[in-house]
Every structure is written in structure tokens, then in C-alpha cells.
Amino acid sequence: MNGLELSRGYYGEYGKPMLENEFARLLPYLAVGFVGSGSEHYGFDDEISRDHDFEPGFCIFLPDEETVSRRDAFLLERAYAKLPREYGGVKCQKISPVGGNRNGVIRTSDFYSSAVGAPDGGLSTDAWLRIPDYALAEAVNGEIFYDGYGEFTKIRRKLMNMPEDVKLKRLAGNLLIMAQSGQYNFPRCLKHGEPEAAQLACVEFVNSAMKAVSLLNNKYLPYYKWSFRALRENAETKEISEKLSVLLFGENSDIAAKEKYDIIEEISAEVISKLQSRDLTKATCDNLENHAYSVNDKISDSYVRNLHILSAV
After folding, report:
1. Strand-pair partners of 31
2. What's the rounded Cα separation, in Å, for the pair 155 and 139?
3. Which one of 223, 232, 295, 300 has the largest count of C-beta atoms within 10 Å of its C-beta?
4. How far apart are CA 57 and CA 15, in angstroms?
């Protein structure tokens, strides 16, 4: 049983009955779910993950104090703390049930302020350009079991939909890095007799390729520890993740370097094909740099379009 399954079962067996029996009047204003940082919120946790922050639990999200008072919040915290301390053979940790931990009672505005820096999820264009992919992933991962008020889900859906111009700016920047690191610098570093620098170029290419592919699939790339896992478990990106994996391993002998460069070009060609099929580029060559600038030209907002092409990566 992974963390998400544990949370869902714990809520269903203990949390839901507690809320329905003791807080029926508050139910229309609450949301309940399992969202945030940590591999368990993606369903990526395993036995090793249980060495920290692993317990049965869930979050009860509350609207502002005018809707759910401090006293009601306190009563919810106290009731949550009285829930059974073990479920599915896993014991709860000795931490406070008050919002701020991974589980417990927390204001919706506090959760989103912590996750993305905006209590209502309303990000400015500049904020959208700056916020890292993993922060957005943590804000919309996991599962919402119940949302009577609708506020939490409304913000969640808003954050799931990155503005198109921001997406294009991020995409253009990552395409340019792919071109510079993989298509250009990788073979050039090898010619200079710098295999270490060549491998660093591979790492840069892989990192930007993962981001570009995720953007093209309307996904937010999680924290680097789980980025490959996320690509592998998505049917649309599984094959490309296997190719990217090859670039991170092995030596850079003549034969290995040739194989790696061929993979870089294969991945580049696949990305270009996706760009062309979605009418995101007017370039027709196999050079990702040209496609990067073509994608940037598709941006409608002149402010975003005229920013440095790498401003959002």
C-alpha cells in the first residue's frame, strides 16, 4: 500500500465518518485530500520512502476565517488528533495536527501561499515565468477526496492550466538549451578532449528535454528525484525517457559518443515533429535553435515575447 492508498483508506474508514458525524454543519465548506511535497503524493513512494514523513493521514482544507471560524478550526484540529494513531500497519508520527505539516487542518490560502506564493493561486505573468515546475507539480498532485465548498478545486484547476504564452516561453528556452548543449556542445566538447564537459552537456540536454517533453504533454515535471519516474509512468513519454536514460550512463568513447549523439538527434527530431504537428514552429530544419526562436515568435503577448528567450527556464 503506497502513501496515497493509505491516505485514501484512512480517510474513508476514520476521517469521513468523523466529519459527517461531528461536523455536518461544516462539511459544505471543507475540502479533504492528500496533496503536496513528497513522493507519496505522486504515488511514487516505496519501502525506502518510509524512513521519514510516512504515516496515515490527510489534509482538511478550510476557507477563510469569516467562513470557518478559528474556534471551528480548533475543534477540527482536536478531532483530527483523536483519530486512530495506526492504520494499515503504519503508525502516525508524533507531530501536531495543525496545518503546516503534511497532514492535518490547514487553510486553503495557507496551502497555496506556501506552494506557489499566492493564496488564491492568482499568479501574475512574471510569477508564472519564475515559478519552478516542481512547485506547480506539488500544488496540483495527489488527490482530492471531497470538496464541498469548491474553492480548493477551483484554485487547483487554475494552476493546472499554465497560460499559453508562458508555456511557449518556457518551451522556447528549453529548446534552445537542448540545441546548445546536445546538438552543439556535446560533440564539440569531445573534439576538445573534454569528456567530462561532454557528459555535463548531456545532463543539460536531458534536463531541458524532460521539461520540453512535459510541457508538450501539458504536465509539470516533478522534483528531479522523481522526474524520470514521472516520464516512465506516462505512456506518451515512456519511450523517450528510456532514450534520455542512456545519455546519463556510460563512457564517452568514440563508439559510445556516436550512439549518444544519434540518440540526441532522435530525441530532437521527435520533439520537432511534435512542434510541427501542433503548428508551434514554422522552421523546417533539424536545428532545435531555429525552432526555439520560431516558438518564441508564436507568443502573443509582446512583453513575454520580447523577454530574453531563456527568461523562463
Report:
1. 61, 147
2. 10
3. 295
4. 9
